[in-house]
Specification:
The structure holds two protein chains of two kinds.
Chain A: E1 2-9, E2 16-23, H1 48-52, E3 68-74, E4 80-86, H2 88-92, E5 96-101, E6 106-107, E7 113-119, H3 122-129, E8 133-138, H4 145-148, E9 162-170, H5 173-179, E10 182-190, E11 202-208, E12 211-216, H6 221-232, E13 239-242, H7 259-270, E14 274-277, H8 280-286, E15 293-301, E16 307-316, H9 328-333, E17 338-346, H10 361-379, H11 383-390, H12 394-407, E18 422-430, E19 442-447, E20 453-456, H13 466-478, E21 485-488, H14 505-532, E22 539-542, E23 545-548, E24 554-556, H15 557-561, E25 569-574, E26 589-597, E27 603-612, H16 620-639, E28 645-646, E29 651-652, E30 670-675, H17 698-710, H18 721-732
Parallel strand pairs in A: 3-14, 12-13, 16-17, 20-21, 27-30
Antiparallel strand pairs in A: 1-2, 3-7, 4-6, 4-8, 5-7, 9-17, 10-15, 11-12, 11-14, 15-16, 18-26, 19-20, 19-25, 22-23, 23-24, 26-27, 28-29
Helix pairs in contact in A: 6-7, 10-17, 13-14, 16-17
Chain B: H1 3-10, E1 29-32, E2 35-38, E3 52-53, H2 55-58, H3 67-75, H4 84-97, H5 103-109, H6 120-133
Antiparallel strand pairs in B: 1-2, 1-3
Helix pairs in contact in B: 3-6
Classes of the chains: A alpha+beta, B mainly alpha.
């Protein structure tokens, strides 16, 4: 049931009262000026002490009595079919307890699973793999997406190597692209990137009768449970998935990968718990990646900078998986009267792509913002002014002005005008992401014996601080302090929760937690009312007591709880559908200053100003950490990261953290973070996620800053020194 | 066996993490005679008869956090926390060697430790704060 209500949405100077339909079973949304004591404070991470002391146990740290160790035999060929396999020698190994040959007989990337072994030690398991005799029929392969698109290319899928994923048109793009005052074309290339979570992928599985428990390093205990139950042909209630702490995810742990059922099946065969932890090398082959892109973008604008038309043609590869589109941000951000979009997924014989922090948006933003800078340059206009003219979001336009002031945009000089060898440049890019959450997640609040208050929710804390914000919201609602609230999460036996990805977690679980806490309070007051001889409406919480308003009469929680069976009360709530929001997506923008050394080709990011909104900021300390992380991963993507495949052999060359370089302590710039507060609406805590928005603009802004420094564009990421030097050289030679 | 394997698999001291296996990320940083070492690149036999300190040993005997650990919590010098024990141990070795490091010295002292979540700015703040609090430098407690 819903009730009509009014909420104030917007930001200072732009507040408006909006009539919305609110679920009547929920507390009314916290307003932007609500007097909150704990929500909004810089509360230290509640699991911080466990993590800094090494007490926090991650999946990779778990052991069980009698546990076996598993290892996987993988296809060394990018494309092969199994002709024959003989595991008898492996089975005869004295330390081997189980051998499993997988049902899949065609391997479509180097690293695909063929068989697995469980043994009493990892060394023995690896030794046993070498005793397995396999005869492969080697098949033609293609790992280069440019070649995979061509007619006659080796077949990756029966349906063909190319899928048109998006085809869209509006207005008259062909004509507008010819007749506008300025038309530019940019070709932006982005590489396949790897999530490179420091805790890789792994599972520990144990059977008790016909039930299996999997401790899995995952962002989605319920999705893994569902997939594992389906794979093992078990009812879902026979499968339990637990994840206490996870060492990173970034999208690579949103789905069940093959290692999880392998561990479970080996454990069933061996009659003992089995732990299967992938090595760094394996992790880089087969547990997801950010798809590549080749984006040909034409942008037409009028003299005054107003966009007339956009043509967006792309292809990209996520290996044996699709989902390579990049056009998501286009219509969310700017007005394009005419539009032509054609995007292709190209399938190749390489490890599967999967979502990676703001999938598609990161790549698409590089192309979109590159085209905007190029067309501004062609028209002789300030690229900031061109954005302000075309941006749809009132919030982002304000953020752009604020950020420009903080970075000192007036210092931006005509592109390439600094004298060598150290050339500075400024660049800007925007962000857009809908992290307003979805309905469905549940939370349960228990007030129990000894005044114990517990919030239980099957969600995951992947390092974003979910535990902490849940404790804050419950403490706020019940008038407690954060240490008085215990948080239990990461278990599919707990109340259902959606996966932790897409920046939805805070907006999914905190409204449910708040409602559950409010219901627990109401229940406590209802139980106390007859004892105090007043109506529940006349009561309020006062610390661990229930007080009659305007009087000294009080009862302790425990005296109320003692009177009910079990001595504890439980209140559950489910996240309801979103109500209206101020703007459809979180906005934000980042300004970047770089210094390019024209003698070495080295790009150094000097300073970043990041202006972001995400509704109510529940905890500025954790929120800033998310922004720092987005910026740093974004610079890493712009300057360093690329998975390299030797297309002659179809093998990944970057299989460790030395060859797959990520940004480190010496390369981190000064980052200034500016929160832009928006009463965003959507849900009763009025929070919107910040994980993805923070990474989306960074690489785009870095590329634009480099172009400003050099007076030429390097739109082939990562912008490594060799590319800088070659671009300068080819300009010098005319 | 490497020191890392012995610590994690035989002694079940899992505070020292294994992330790259090849001496590239620093998640397994421990102290050997007071100096930072990658446990994954140290043979267990090399450590025989030498003083080894792990993250578990940095925590004070009464269970309280070492000032560095406390500063990491207070400044949120972590996100997923998987690299954190290594970061803390690298920072502790730095402060033993150089109790009042300049900002650039903090960065170079931590250059061997990767944080994929990108917690660096707050890690730097935490180390600087701990250095201020530990002045005069803590006596080596091990």
């Amino acid at each position: 049931m819903t009730k009509k209500s009014k909420v104030v949405l917007g930001f200072p100077g732009h507040f408006k009262e909006v009539a919305v339909l609110l679920p009547d079973s929920e507390p009314v949304p916290w307003t932007h000026d609500a007097d909150l004591k704990i929500v909004g404070q810089r509360v230290a991470r509640v699991d911080g002490p466990d993590k800094v002391s090494g007490r926090a146990r991650y999946t990779f740290d778990l052991k069980l009595p009698g546990m076996l160790h598993a290892a996987v035999l993988r296809s060394p060929h990018p494309h092969a079919r199994l002709k024959a396999i003989d595991v008898t020698k492996a089975e005869a190994h004295p330390e081997v307890r189980a051998v499993l040959v997988l049902e899949e007989r065609e391997y479509r990337f180097a690293g695909a699973e063929v068989a697995a072994v469980a043994a009493t030690s990892l060394d023995a398991a690896r030794e046993a793999l070498r005793l397995i005799d396999v005869e492969y029929e080697i098949l033609p392969f293609v790992t280069d997406p440019a070649k995979a698109r061509l007619p006659g290319a080796p077949e990756v899928r029966a349906e063909g190597n190319v899928d048109v994923s998006v085809a869209k048109r509006r207005g008259n793009p062909e004509e507008d692209l010819l007749t506008s005052d300025a038309v530019v074309e940019v070709v932006v290339r982005t590489p396949v990137a790897l999530h490179a979570c420091l805790e890789g992928h792994g599972s520990l599985a144990r059977w008790e009768g016909d039930r299996v428990t999997a401790w899995d390093s995952t962002q989605a205990v319920f999705d893994v449970r569902n997939s594992l139950a389906a794979t093992l042909k078990l009812p879902q209630d026979k499968v339990r998935v637990i994840k206490d702490h996870a060492g990173g995810g970034f999208g690579s742990k949103l789905q069940m990968w093959t290692h999880t059922p392998i561990a479970a099946r080996l454990a069933r065969l061996a009659g003992a718990p089995v732990r299967l932890l992938l090595s760094r090398h394996e992790d880089f082959l087969c547990t997801g990646n950010r798809h590549s892109s080749v984006q040909t973008v034409k942008l037409a604008a009028k003299k005054d900078g107003a966009f007339a038309a956009l043509s967006w043609e792309t292809y990209g590869t996520g290996g044996v998986e699709g989902l390579a589109q990049t056009s998501g941000p286009i219509d969310e951000m700017y007005r394009f009267p005419s539009l032509l979009v054609h995007e292709e997924d190209v399938f190749t014989h390489a490890g599967p792509g999967c979502p990676m922090r703001a999938p598609g948006h990161v790549q698409g933003m590089v192309a979109l913002e590159a085209a905007i800078d190029a067309v501004s340059e062609a028209l002789g206009l300030d690229p900031l002014e061109v954005r302000l003219k075309n941006d749809k979001s009132l919030v982002r336009r304000e953020e752009l002005k604020l950020g420009a002031e903080r970075i000192g945009w007036h210092r931006r000089r005509p592109s390439g005008s600094d004298p060598p060898p150290l050339k500075r440049g400024l660049g800007v890019a925007g962000t857009t992401w809908d992290g307003s959450g979805l309905p469905g997640s549940e939370a349960e609040v228990m007030i129990g014996p000894d005044d114990k208050v517990e919030i239980c929710c099957g969600t995951q804390d992947i390092g974003t601080g979910t535990r902490t914000i849940l404790a804050q919201v419950v403490a706020e609602e019940l008038g407690l302090s954060v240490p008085e609230v215990t948080v239990r999460l990461g278990d599919s036996y707990f109340p259902y929760s959606l996966l932790s990805g897409g920046s939805i977690t805070a907006a999914c679980v905190t409204p449910a937690a708040r409602t559950a806490a409010a219901r627990a309070r109401e229940e406590l007051l209802r139980l106390a009312a007859p004892k105090l001889g007043v109506a529940p409406e006349e009561l309020q919480l006062h610390g661990r007591e229930i007080a009659v308003r305007g009087s000294q009469r009080r009862l302790s929680w425990s005296s109320v709880l003692q009177s009910i069976p079990g001595g504890s009360l439980l209140a559950k709530a489910e996240r309801q559908a979103n109500y209206a929001g101020f703007e459809p997506a979180a906005a934000g923008c980042q300004f970047v200053e770089v210094e390019v050394d024209t003698e070495t080709g080295q790009v150094r990011v000097v300073r970043v100003v990041a202006v972001h909104d995400s509704g109510r900021i529940l905890n500025p300390l954790l929120w800033e950490s998310q922004v720092n992380g987005g910026v740093i991963q974004g610079i890493s993507f712009a300057l360093l990261e690329q998975r390299v495949i030797d297309h002659r052999f179809g093998k990944v060359l970057t299989t460790n953290l030395e060859t797959y370089k990520v940004l480190g302590a010496l390369e981190v710039p000064e980052i200034e973070i500016i929160p832009f507060l928006v009463a965003s609406g959507f849900n009763n805590t009025q929070v919107v996620g910040i994980g993805e928005p923070a990474i989306i603009p960074t690489a785009a802004a870095v590329a634009n800053a480099v172009a400003n420094a050099l007076g030429l564009r390097i739109d082939d990421l990562p912008i490594t020194p060799d590319k800088v030097l070659m671009a300068l050289e080819s300009r010098a030679q005319g | 066996a490497t020191l890392l394997e012995v610590l994690r698999e035989e002694l079940d001291m899992t505070g020292t993490k294994n992330a790259c296996e090849l001496g590239e990320c620093g998640s397994c940083t421990v102290h050997l005679d007071g100096r930072a070492r990658y446990a994954c690149l140290t043979l267990a036999v090399e450590a025989a008869g030498r003083r080894i300190t792990t993250i578990e040993g940095l925590t004070l005997a009464d269970g309280n956090l070492h000032p560095l650990q406390a500063a990491f919590v207070e400044h949120d010098g972590l996100q997923c926390g998987f690299c954190t024990p290594g970061q803390v141990m690298a920072a502790a070795a730095l402060l033993l060697d150089n109790p009042q490091p300049a900002p650039e010295e903090i960065r170079s002292g931590l250059a061997g430790n990767t944080c994929r979540c990108g917690a660096y700015p707050k890690i730097f703040e935490a180390v600087a704060q701990a250095a201020r609090r530990m002045k005069p430098p803590d006596e080596d407690r091990r």
